[in-house]
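Quarterly update, task 2.4: iron/sulfur cluster-bound model.
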Amino acid sequence: MKKTTFLKRKLREASFISRALLSSRHPVLAHLIPMRRCNLACGYCNEYDRTSKPVDLEIIKARLDKLADLGTSIVTISGGEPMMHPELDQIIQHIRHRGMIAGLISNGYYFTPERIKRLNKAGLEYLQISIDNVEPDEVSRKSLRVLDKKLRHLSEHADFHVNINSVIGGGIKNPDDALTVARRAVELGFSTTVGVIHDGDGTLKPLSPKEKDIFQQVKKMGNKDHARLNWFQDSIAEGKAYNWRCRAGARYLYICEDGLVHWCSQQRGYPGIPLEQYTMDDFDREYKTEKWCAPTCTLQCVHQVGILDNWRDPQKTPTQVAQEQKDGKGVGEMIGAD
Ligand code: SF4
Ligand code: SF4
């Protein structure tokens, strides 16, 4: 990556963080789904289908315009597999054209040198690839052996930041794989993070001593900023609940392929309001509503966004919020802000 590109990106990042700390009245991060379809079928995934069509470019542009009007700082395109969308480059260009940071989450299968150069040109700034294991198995084909060639292409041609996420827990067969994946990521000049996941039945169980040891080793190799922002993972690794204020529906938005706003990928259905009708009243309600699923949540990016406001504006239960909105109290009064 060119040094000037790196410095420009860091400066933009710093200015967006300052803005987010100065004001809590705009979304920081939105995940936008331009298609639900995926070329893979990971055993644990509830976020893909095999048949859906890409969302029309003009519809996506209108959604991006609305996100920009709400003051959103970062848009990360996710899926399904967003690289299958035929107009991905135009989507990225439009994010940049509207002054937002452009990110992408992909399974990595489509990164040829030519495709990477087109993403450079479109203005992509961040890419995250999650790699689940070294050898493909019946649960996941997001595997280092299959993807290594793509990673080499990225190392050689990408002008954007690349982060490789590995996973631990949740009955992953070989915990050592996370270490192998992280080592390879560092070797190729990428940053690396590790995700702690729940058991298959969603229950919170402590990692085994071996898994804990590997988790700590991978964390040490990774991006220090991420490690600092992911304290919650230490509680999850111990099988303990973590108390924090999830600002999903406000500072973090998940926009599905139908254009509805949801708390996140794992809590689809609420609030389920079309983005074009989303107002600052909706934003305020979700900002101050306590989420029942927060103590066991493992979604790293929503936790990171939450840190920006964890020190301010305590949250209330959905019933209290609904009653106070009915009583017509002002937002400041309701959240007990100074
Ligand atoms: S690659 Fe991603 S979206 Fe596709 S099935 Fe696997 S986890 Fe789900
Ligand atoms: S706590 Fe986690 S699972 Fe619950 S809404 Fe927030 S991000 Fe989603």
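Highlight for this quarter: Residues 330-338 have pLDDT under 50 and may be disordered.
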